Amino acid sequence: MTTHDPVKHVKFLRQTLSQDKKPLGFFISAGCPLAVKMPAEKWPLIPDVAKLTQFVTNQLKSETEEKNNYDKLIDEINLAKQGEKKIEDINIEDILSFLRGLKEVSVGNTVRGFTKENLVELEKNICNKIAEKLEVNLPDKDTPYHKLAQWISIDRENPVEVFTTNYDLLLEEAFEDLSIPYFDGFVGSRQSFFDLRAVEDNLIPKHWTRLWKIHGSINWFQKENKEVYRSSLTKANGDSYLIYPSHLKYEQSRKMPYLALIDQLNRFLRLPNSFMVLSGYSFNDEHLNDTILNALKANPKSMVIAMLFDTLTFEDSEKKLIDRYPKAIQLAKNRNNLALWSSDEGIIGTVRGKWKISGDIEDEDNLAECYDKKVHQLKLGDFSTLGDFLQALIGDKQTTLDEK
Predict the structure, then answer these.
(1) What is the rounded distance in angstroms from the CA atom of residue 85 to the CA atom of residue 56?
(2) Domains of the chain by residue range
(3) Is 341 exposed, middle or buried (0-12, 13-18, 19+ CB in 10 A)?
(4) Other Cβ atoms within 10 Å of 114 Cβ, number
(5) Nearest to 29 by CA among 309, 246, 231
(6) How far apart are CA 182 and CA 180, in angstroms?
């Protein structure tokens, strides 16, 4: 049976993340807020996409037998998706994409029984409910987000770039709690506007962290004339939320910021020897998968490690072994610079294998915070453990500096 030695690979990760000159990036996705420790009755701080979808549906569905416009929209999505996706797998991002697709062709017409006014109102109501659920604060200053921010704050030759598909403001809160300067593409203070030139030409101070919110944010809005701005508030005030821009063909004015930030992800992964850690990402966004894969193909010297929560497989009700992350596994088996690290297995250099320490190695004790030797399980797929790992690196870095 093929195995991978966690000592060897965690040591490689530790050494890589401790470098000053290497382009380093983190990709924070939907699973990360689940790792923030909360009292049982208040957990999770932010639900995953499935639970968020359930919340929005419960809030907007009709409470009577007579269907409202939201119910009718879900019926239309179910009808359109039959044979393509299981009904229970349709999420809030599918709903927004479908709705916006209808809205694009609704001008002056009725589409599937909806007027443009119906669709605009539905979009507004859905985004209002998303913002309501995501407008939360971190419980304290000892969260994985703060630990990531502390690690980022170390002086480097190249600034760390953080990409996220999350619409919440948790990363911003952690950076501001620790007075860490960051740039998210917007400048200004009242209605901050997107500075495309600063993004594309990297006209940003070196000590500023780059924060790229690929799927928008609960404080990003779009005016009727298509101008995009970031507000200090999370209330729409009549303008549209810029949450999860769907993968439609946008006119040039809507290139900002969505396509520009996708381009930024592509540019980062094409930098010489770039290295990125993915956390909380399930590889269910085909557009992002294509962007990552194409960049890795174009730049064989770049490297992406996806930290996956839980085991790589699970048993279904019939005791059949099912891959938990089928899309991720398919990609990693065909791309030697994309690695998957789950709790029980890794796919490294396209080779899938269980974790197993090979022999007595002095560095074995350094795995204590991220590896359970009794059951051969790596814990870095949990964003909380990854935060502890990064916090330990800060101590290692300080020791190195003191020795110098």
Answers:
(1) 20
(2) 3-42+137-403, 49-134
(3) buried
(4) 21
(5) 309
(6) 6
Read off the pLDDT of residues 101-114 as tens digits, 9 standing for 90 and up.
898 888 788 999 99
- For residue 380, pLDDT over 50 is answered with yes
pLDDT in tens, 308-346: 999 999 998 889 999 999 999 999 999 999 999 999 999
Question: How does pLDDT run across 87-133, given as a tens digit for each residue?
Answer: 567 889 889 989 988 988 887 889 999 999 999 999 999 999 999 99
Identity of residue 25: G
